[in-house]
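chain below, 341 aa
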Amino acid sequence: MVEETDLKHWRDAGHVARRTLEGIKDEIIDGKHWNDVIDSAERFIRRHGGQAAFPVTISVNEMAAHYTTNTLLEPPQGHEGEMVFQKGDLVKLDVGVHIKGAIADNALTVEVGSGGNHTDQIRAAEEARDAAIELMHPGTPWHEIGAAAEQVSKDAGYEPIRNLCGHELERWNLHAGTSIPSYACGANNLDKNPQFKGSVETGGIYAIEPFNTTGSTGMVENVAPSGSSNILRVTGNVKIRKALSKGKLKPLGATMARYIEERYNTLPFAERWAYPLLEKPFPEEDEVSLRKKWDQLVNKLASIRFLETYTALRDSDGGDVGQFEHTVLITDGGPEVLTVA
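prediction:
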């Protein structure tokens, strides 16, 4: 639930997030590197008074979510060739913005070159999002929201992705509490899907993001190896001072952990954002040595559960995936879309 006095931060974050999507989408063109678009979007956010609530992600064709570039510009496993857009690619651009921890999350899908190969799928993904939002009045059961999104996908000939959900937003918490279905989980099946029990609440802020696919099963899978997204997050469950006193961290590891926590709080961050922090304590080290130290640091901080890593996701059948997303505030009168320009 959000307090009335905080709403300006949430609305401002929504405006910046939407302006970023609209300002950057035309840069997704044939021959352009994925990283150039990601970097441009993150700079756009900062120029317009926001901070990235998570690394800007690019997901192409069968890739569904949670991929951002790293400092080595290594493509996700299974991607052949350079990370360069090609005519006909189906591209999801996902942008999150925070202002003092108040978060807005939005996404869109475009076809590189606008050749018309994915027009119906793109329209269906956008309409599924809008159908779900239209029903988001206080008291509406979550299973009805999911059924509305699925109906649009099915009517257009696509499968809804069943193991990706929308999510509640709280200050400094991107995935808080409630999960929001994008398929017909069914009023009679909630014992099997307890995460979808309950209903829309007044004052709640939710990211609504139905995914659809040309695949047959409507499921996504992890892309190997673990951490393939190049995205990490401070869990907030481990106190650095306590870990240091118990010998779980050495002084340098504790210092690096503090740097990371001070910069990103508990919001997701990119490897490419944090990796350069090592250059300060090790100015004379070469790239190979720095890379080894980074990997050791991440492994150590993950082992004590100070950090968690995210894995990139793709359609399990290799189908093309579409997605649209808005962040909405629930008022007594219904949904207010925050991610508007």
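The chain has a mean pLDDT of 95. The two ends are 23 Å apart (CA to CA).
thats it, cya
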